[in-house]
Amino acid sequence: MRLSSGVFLCLAALLALIPLGGCTRLQIKLGMRVPLATLPVTSMEASLPKEPAIAPGQKSPLVVHFSTSDGKTWQTEGQGGGKILWSDLTVTPTIVTVNNKGVLSLARDPRLSDGKTGKVVITAPSHPDLRAELEVPLRYNIAYRANFSGANGTSGFDGTAGLDGSSGSDGAIDPNDPAAGPSAGGNGTDGGNGSDGSNGGNGGDAQSVQVWLAPHPGPQALIEAKVQAGKGRPRYYLIDPNGGSLSVTADGGDGGKGGKGGRGGRGGSGGSGSPPGFSGADGHDGMDGHDGSDGNGGQITVTCDPAVRQWLPIAKLSAFRGPKPIINTAPVPPLW
Asked: What's the CA gap between 234 and 227, in Å, rounded?
């Protein structure tokens, strides 16, 4: 059955209002999901369709494919775009973690996964004879980022507009003496002044940052990195120099923009009459607020082991409005 776009939108809105359990039952009733227990499944296999491997701090959606005795194929919901619910499966991960939507994650800290391989084992309670295993290789050829920049200043508030002046009253004709003509028109009142915009906040200063680069033991050329800002908690990275990089940023924060001054109110027009009334003066516009001062960049100091000096360009350093980074070459012991 093909649903019109209007009907589909109505169903989607209805599903959003139903609690999770009721939503699943309604999806099954509408044919949008199919209970795995009702299918004659003969085999299943798992895959990572986006990337065959996962890097620290990354996520990767898992897809499970099913074959049935009647020659049909089925896939899991989510990335698989299928009708099989993840709640019908049991996923047991090793090294990696997995959420209830079948999305794998790897911890940012490479020390937790160094030298290991991720793995997931998938079973189906409704089909105890089915089992799928998938190894999840780890990779380190990605662009890591460590940002310790100062915060941007807040923008100032705009001033409020002045009130417009009131129009003067029109002169009147005396009905008992038309020959006398109209009386004088009233004067308009002056417009109010706009208020000044407030000043923008100052940008924050970046902290000083220390970076250490050391060779990682093993047959593959990998670089261990440790990055620490001030007395904060250090961050660790494992980098494949063939495609991987580490950007360290310690820029000064931008000053906030000053608020715009409020517009002055318009003077009220003079009333008609003989003579006509004078128009009121326009109010003065408020003054714009001043921009906040920019923050200072932090000092970045890199200590690079001679064994990885050739790969120093993988470290991309930025300290805008700060001193030039310092690069030292000296032995660096293993970082973990």
From this structure: 6
Token output for 4: 């019109």
Cβ distance 305 to 222 under 8 Å? Answer: no
State the pTM of this model.
0.78
Structure tokens at 328: 């030292």
Beta bridge partners of 235: 227
60: exposed, middle or buried (Cβ count in 10 Å: 0-12, 13-18, 19+): buried
CB 223, CB 311: distance < 8 Å: yes
With a CB cutoff of 8 Å and minimum separation 6, the contacts of 325 are 299, 300, 301, 302, 317, 319
Instruction: Name the token pair of 120.
Output: 């997931």
Percentage of residues in the chain having pLDDT higher than 70: 90
User: What domains lie within the chain, and their CATH numbers?
Assistant: 42-136 (2.60.40), 140-171+183-336 (no CATH)
Q: Please state the length of the chain.
A: 336
Q: Which residue has the higher pLDDT, 5 or 238?
A: 238
- Identity of the amino acid at 138: L
pLDDT of residue 179: 63
180-217 b/e with 16+ CB inside 10 Å = b? eebbbbbbbbbbbbbbbbbbbbbbbbbbbbbbbbbbbe
* Residue 249 pLDDT: 98
